[in-house]
Amino acid sequence: QVQLVESGGGLAQAGASLRLSCAASGRTFSNYAMAWFRQAPGKERVIVAATTSSGDRTYYADSVKGRFTISRDNAKLMGYLQMTSLRNEDTAVYYCAADPHGWGPAMDYWGKGTLVTVSS
C-alpha cells in the first residue's frame, strides 16, 4: 500500500501560479496511476488531472486544460500539480490519489487534501 501527503496549498492571487506536491511512501508508487481531485465549497469532488504510473499519458479536466500540468518523479516518490493562471473558481481542497489499476472516482489511496484559495 501507499500513503500520500499533499503540500503546497495556500493563498494565491488570481493569475498567479502554485505547485502542489504529493509525497508518497512505498516503492509501489512507481507502479500506481496518480491523480489530483478537487472539491470546491458546496460542490462534489471532481477529477482535475491524472497520469499513468510512468507519466506517459495524462488527463486534464476541461476547466484546467492549458493551465495545470500533472507530473511525477517516481525516483523521488513524488507527484506534482503545477497550477498557473489561477482563477477564483480554482479555490478548493485538492487531493492526491493513487491506484495500481488506473485513475477513476474510487481510487485506492488518498491523501487528506490541501486547501488552495485564490483571491482577486
Low-confidence stretches: none
Give the strand tally: 11
Radius of gyration: 13 Å
Helix content: under 10%
What's the main sheet like? 7 strands, mixed
Q: Please state the structural category.
A: mainly beta
Distance between the termini: 40 Å
Shape: globular
Query: What oligomeric state is this?
Result: single chain
- Bin the strand percentage: over 45%
How do the SSEs run, as a string of H and E?
A: EEEEEEEEEEE
Q: Determine the number of helices (DSSP H or I, runs of at least 4 residues).
A: 0
Mean pLDDT: 96
Structure description:
With 120 residues, this protein is mainly β. The chain is built from no helices and eleven strands. The protein has strands spanning 3-7, 10-13, 18-25, 33-39, 46-51, 58-60, 68-73, 78-83, 92-99, 109-110, 114-119. Strands 2, 4, 5, 6, 9, 10 and 11 form a seven-stranded mixed β-sheet that branches. The protein has a four-stranded antiparallel β-sheet with strand order 1-3-8-7, with no helix packed on it. A hairpin with a 6-residue loop joins strand 5 (46-51) and strand 6. The model has no long low-confidence stretch (mean pLDDT 96).
